[in-house]
Each structure stands twice: as structure tokens, then as C-alpha cells.
From TrEMBL:
PANTHER family: DIAMINOPIMELATE EPIMERASE (PTHR31689:SF0), DIAMINOPIMELATE EPIMERASE, CHLOROPLASTIC (PTHR31689). Signal peptide: none annotated. It is found in: Cytoplasm. Homodimer. GO terms for molecular function: diaminopimelate epimerase activity. Its EC number is 5.1.1.7. The record marks 161, 210 as: Could be important to modulate the pK values of the two catalytic cysteine residues. This is Diaminopimelate epimerase. The active site is at residues 75, 219. The keyword Amino-acid biosynthesis applies.
């Protein structure tokens, strides 16, 4: 099978985007891993599959596969690339679309300056829904990681996140702790491990060790989760710029049941074909 693909990135978080509207696509986990492989395949953090949806209240379905082959619920940087993709490939003329994901509907809008704003929906703190094994919804919770106890905020943005505050993002222990948190038994579906440095009430720096992909240059849902965690801890205001190693995202959250809004870039790098 030969597949046409588009290589894209959102603040350095890179994707292979596949048009499942015009092509018949069913990928096995092995094929996902091959496409994502940076030496033997195309290389990416996630594969995004654009499909028609049977739902009348949505325009498309958007499926997300991590580089390790697993299908997951949500991807914020991918959602921005998604709307750019369907617009550029003339799958729709709408600049604002409603997208069905594994974790519900989200709505990305292509702005006049080429950036994209996504309504990511409201964050979830109920432990069972994250899922996180805990009988408390406190904003700060202890988590035993190896020989140390770290303080995390557990939150779902459709996908699970464990966010820590660190003094210096450059020395954050992603390489030693990231995988231990990702696979921690208190997160039964594994988790994305975020590390944020508070610069001031409107600016943070962020690194994320992603579930199923390792450290990426940027994580959109991770940025939303970090800002929500910082606001819940009363460390941040409602609109925050998030500096990642691949670019800056702007996140706004009015609190409690409000949706999180994320704005950032969505860039096409090249198009190609691959034989599977
Ligand atoms: N990079 C993404 C998140 C992709 C999924 C994540 N690794 C997970 O397993 O939940 C983003 O921009 O949100």
C-alpha cells in the first residue's frame, strides 16, 4: 500500500498527517511505529489520521497515534495542524471546524494570521476520570517516584497529565523521572509528565515527557494542563504564555468549568508518499 502523507509541526511537536477521507487507511501498531521511526521511517512524535465522522454535530474525526503505536485520546498541537491540513487540502472551506476525538468534541479555528486557536474543552480533575488512583482532588498531591516524593497536579485535558513545578526547567529531571512517572501504577493508562518553571504570573517555561513518545519539543495538552495546574495553585493569572523548546503557545482559562483556549502555530513542512 502506498500512502500520501503531509509532515507538519506545531511548535516543534511533529506529525505525519494522513488523509483518511480520500485514502483507505487502516494502520497496525507496527506500521505506526515504522512511520514514526526517525531512522527507518518518516519520523514524528504522533501520527494524525483525518477521517469522516458519522456524527452530525462534527465535521471530521481525528485519530491520534503515539510514536510507540498506541492510539490516544487527545493532542493539542495536532489539533492545530489538523485544521490547517483540512483547510489546505480543501477537505472543507470552513475556518472553524468541529472535530470528533476519542475524548469528545473540540473546535479549532484558523486565524487570519495563520495561527490556530483551539477550544480544548474543560479540564477534568476527578481522579477516576483522569484516570489517577487517589481519593483526593487537591491541586497538589504527593507521588512516590523511585526514592523520592514529588508534588504533582493531576489533570486530564482529554488525556492524562501529571504536572510539577520546578525551579529551573533546564535541570528538570525528565531523563531520570519521566519514564517512571509515565508508567507509574497510580496512572493506570499511563501519563504525560510535565515540568513547569514559573517566570511570572503570565509566563511559564515548560518541558513534557510525553506518554508513548518521550520528551517532545512542545506538548499542547501539556501546556493547557500546566497553566490549569498553575492557576489552581494560585501561581498564575488567567492568560499565560508558555515557552517550550519548540515555540510559544498562549493559553487562557477562566477557571473551574470553563473551556481552555490554546493559540499557537501550525506549520506544513513537506508532502510525500511512503510504501507500507
Ligand atoms: N503532543 C500532544 C499530545 C500527544 C498525546 C500524548 N502523548 C498522550 O499520550 O496523551 C499534544 O500536543 O497535546
Amino acid at each position: 500500500m502506498t500512502l500520501k502523507f503531509t509532515k507538519m509541526h506545531g511548535a516543534g511537536n511533529d506529525f505525519v498527517v494522513l488523509d483518511g477521507v480520500r485514502q483507505q487507511i487502516a494502520l497496525s501498531p507496527e506500521q505506526v511505529r515504522y512511520i514514526a521511526d526517525r531512522h527507518f521511517g518518516i519520523g514524528c512524535d504522533q501520527i494524525l489520521l483525518v477521517e469522516r465522522t458519522p456524527r452530525e454535530d462534527a465535521d471530521f474525526r481525528y485519530r491520534i497515534f503515539n510514536a510507540d503505536g498506541g492510539e490516544v485520546e487527545q493532542c493539542g498541537n495536532g489539533a492545530r495542524c489538523f485544521v490547517r491540513f483540512v483547510h489546505d487540502h480543501k477537505l472543507t472551506s470552513k475556518r472553524e471546524i468541529v472535530v470528533e476525538t476519542k475524548s469528545g468534541l473540540i473546535s479549532p479555528r484558523l486565524e487570519d494570521d495563520g495561527r490556530v486557536t483551539v477550544n480544548m474543552g474543560a479540564p477534568i480533575f476527578e481522579p477516576a476520570l483522569i484516570p489517577f488512583v487517589s481519593d483526593s482532588q487537591d491541586a497538589i498531591q504527593p507521588l512516590q517516584v523511585g526514592n523520592e516524593t514529588v508534588q504533582i497536579t493531576a489533570v486530564s485535558m482529554g488525556n492524562p497529565h501529571a504536572v510539577q513545578v520546578v525551579d529551573d526547567i533546564e535541570t528538570a529531571p525528565l531523563s531520570t523521572q519521566g519514564h517512571l512517572i509515565e508508567t507509574h501504577p497510580r496512572f493506570p493508562k499511563r501519563v504525560n509528565a510535565g515540568y513547569m518553571q514559573i517566570v511570572d504570573r503570565e509566563h511559564i517555561k515548560l518541558r513534557v515527557f510525553e506518554r508513548g513518545a518521550g520528551e517532545t519539543l512542545s506538548c499542547g495538552t501539556g501546556a493547557c494542563a500546566a497553566v490549569v495546574a498553575g492557576i489552581r495553585r494560585r501561581l498564575l493569572d488567567n492568560s499565560v504564555h508558555v515557552a517550550t523548546r519548540g515555540g510559544t503557545l498562549s493559553i487562557t482559562w477562566a477557571g473551574e468549568h470553563s473551556p481552555v483556549l490554546m493559540t499557537g502555530p501550525a506549520i506544513t513542512v513537506f508532502e510525500g508518499e511512503i510504501n507500507l
